[in-house]
């Protein structure tokens, strides 16, 4: 899985740059990172949410490890969303950061899950840690739909991607089939890299716990 | 529900005798007000400028004072392992949570009732649309307390829990705080309540969502 994902990233990225560079301003290239990463961050936090519920239902430490792994990867992706977003914003809007709802909620989303990881480090007893952080993971997910819906609830400078008008101010948009294809390929690549990173982290965590068990014996 | 009220009454009775949480909440909130009135002393001459900062100043007071109160809510129960006694009571676990929500909510309301006139005095400001502002403040503080009690119960088990509470609570309660602050500042600027309905709707929805989720998950927090 890891091999496939990395192959996808390294193989497809040049393709993306070629096809996008012909049509649009070069700063638009970063969009192919920005949007898939954002989607993957949401996906990661959704995984945290689901596995937290499953943990509370089944009390199986497997789900705890899944939510930890997904949260860690999700925080990295959320940070990358902010980073790529600000670089892009600097090129297009002229500022790295503007205080408007979409950006603020993305930042909050990032902070909430940093809080999640902080909570985990502050709890010593593994069982308690698993249970309490699962509770927090469920409540925290409530802030994700806020981030996603904020663009529709408040008027926002951040362009709307689905429904309504597509990103059209540069004369581009997503109509071109080659652009769409590249976007989908990147989406696939990032989702795959998310899955591989998470499963890698999961294996790591599992081995770590087995080691702890062996030490304790 | 009724049993939750009983526990809340017990808390209120303790609080009315000792008054340790309430007094520090009020004093803290007033201190913040004073700092703001010094910092914004240039603005005080103009009512329209005061109106623009009013909602921010008020909500910072409420939220900081509320955080202070939330820090102590479960701490009193843990001290003499009262929590274990409460858990042994033949009542649903939710009602412990409910009682804490009622208790902190009442404390916050009292703090707000004292802070708002003090704001009027210190900032030389005449409130408009006070009923709607009151409703928005009620809804906002309820949502804040609902999330706060859950997080407070969570972090009481953690190392350095008091440090962790604001860090976890503030971003998490933002879906309630943002519409509350925006609606309050809209009202104080003299906007029509109907133009602010989208904020109020958001506020009500999140109050319900947070309350429902917290009621569902609370028993996992106290289970040992």
From TrEMBL, chain A:
Membrane-spanning intervals of the chain: 33-56, 68-89, 101-119, 131-154, 179-200
Bilayer topology term: Multi-pass membrane protein
One GO term (biological process): cytochrome complex assembly
Residue ranges constituting the Cytochrome c assembly protein domain according to the UniProt record: 4-155
Cellular compartments annotated: Membrane
GO molecular-function terms, A-Z: heme binding; heme transmembrane transporter activity
CC terms in the record's Gene Ontology section: plasma membrane
Pfam families: Cytochrom_C_asm
InterPro entries assigned to the protein according to its UniProt record, in alphabetical order: Cyt_c_assembly, Cyt_c_biogenesis_CcmC, Cyt_c_biogenesis_CcsA/CcmC
Keywords, sorted A to Z: Cytochrome c-type biogenesis, Membrane, Transmembrane, Transmembrane helix
PANTHER family in the cross-refs: CYTOCHROME B_B6 PROTEIN-RELATED, HEME EXPORTER PROTEIN C
Family: Belongs to the CcmC/CycZ/HelC family.
Name of the protein in question: Heme exporter protein C
Automatic annotation (TrEMBL), chain B:
Organism superkingdom: Archaea
Protein function: Required for the export of heme to the periplasm for the biogenesis of c-type cytochromes.
Family classification: Belongs to the CcmB/CycW/HelB family.
GO cellular component labels: plasma membrane
UniProt keywords, alphabetically: Cell inner membrane, Cell membrane, Cytochrome c-type biogenesis, Membrane, Transmembrane, Transmembrane helix, Transport
Pfam families: CcmB
Membrane topology label: Multi-pass membrane protein
BP GO annotations: cytochrome c biosynthetic process; cytochrome complex assembly
Membrane-spanning residues: 21-40, 52-70, 101-123, 129-156, 163-187, 199-222
Organism phylogeny: Archaea, Methanobacteriati, Methanobacteriota, Stenosarchaea group, Methanomicrobia
Compartments reported by the entry: Cell inner membrane
Organism: Methanohalophilus euhalobius
Protein name (record): Heme exporter protein B
């Amino acid at each position: 899985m890891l091999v496939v994902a990395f192959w996808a990233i390294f193989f497809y990225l040049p393709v993306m740059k070629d096809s996008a560079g012909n049509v649009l301003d070069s700063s638009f290239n970063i969009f192919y990172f920005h949007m898939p990463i954002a989607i993957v961050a949401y996906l990661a936090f959704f995984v945290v949410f689901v596995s937290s519920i499953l943990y509370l239902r089944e009390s199986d430490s497997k789900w705890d490890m899944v939510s930890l792994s997904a949260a860690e990867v999700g925080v990295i992706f959320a940070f990358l969303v902010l980073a790529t977003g600000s670089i892009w914003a600097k090129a297009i809007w002229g500022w790295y950061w503007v205080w408007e709802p979409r950006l603020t909620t993305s930042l909050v989303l990032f902070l909430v899950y940093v809080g999640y990881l902080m909570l985990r480090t502050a709890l010593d007893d593994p069982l308690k840690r698993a249970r309490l952080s699962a509770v927090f993971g469920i409540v925290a997910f409530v802030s994700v739909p806020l981030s996603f819906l904020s663009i529709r609830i408040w008027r926002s400078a951040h362009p709307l991607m689905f429904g309504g008008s597509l990103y059209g101010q540069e004369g581009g948009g997503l109509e071109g089939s080659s652009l769409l294809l590249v976007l989908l390929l990147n989406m696939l690549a990032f989702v795959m890299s998310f899955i591989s990173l998470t499963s890698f982290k999961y294996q790591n965590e599992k081995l770590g716990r087995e080691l702890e068990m062996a030490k304790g014996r | 529900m009724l049993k939750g009220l009983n526990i809340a009454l017990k808390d209120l009775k303790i609080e009315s005798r000792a008054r340790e949480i309430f007094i520090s909440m009020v004093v803290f909130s007033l201190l913040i007000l004073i700092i703001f009135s010094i910092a914004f002393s240039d603005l005080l001459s103009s009512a329209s400028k005061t109106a623009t900062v009013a909602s921010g100043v008020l909500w910072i007071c409420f939220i900081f004072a509320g955080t202070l109160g939330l820090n102590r809510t479960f701490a009193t129960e843990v001290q003499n392992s009262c929590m274990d006694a409460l858990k042994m009571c033949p009542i649903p676990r939710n009602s412990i949570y409910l009682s804490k929500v009622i208790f902190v909510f009442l404390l916050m309301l009292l703090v707000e009732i004292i802070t708002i006139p003090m704001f009027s005095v210190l900032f030389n400001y005449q409130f408009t649309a006070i009923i709607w502002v009151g409703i928005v403040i009620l809804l906002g503080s309820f949502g804040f307390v609902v999330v706060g009690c859950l997080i407070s119960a969570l972090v009481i088990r953690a190392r350095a829990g008091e440090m962790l509470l604001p860090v976890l609570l503030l971003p998490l309660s933002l879906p309630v705080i943002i519409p509350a602050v925006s609606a309050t500042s809209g009202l104080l600027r003299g906007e029509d309540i109907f133009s602010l309905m989208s904020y109020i709707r958001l506020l009500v929805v999140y109050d319900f969502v947070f309350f429902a989720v917290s009621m569902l998950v609370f028993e996992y927090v106290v289970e040992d």
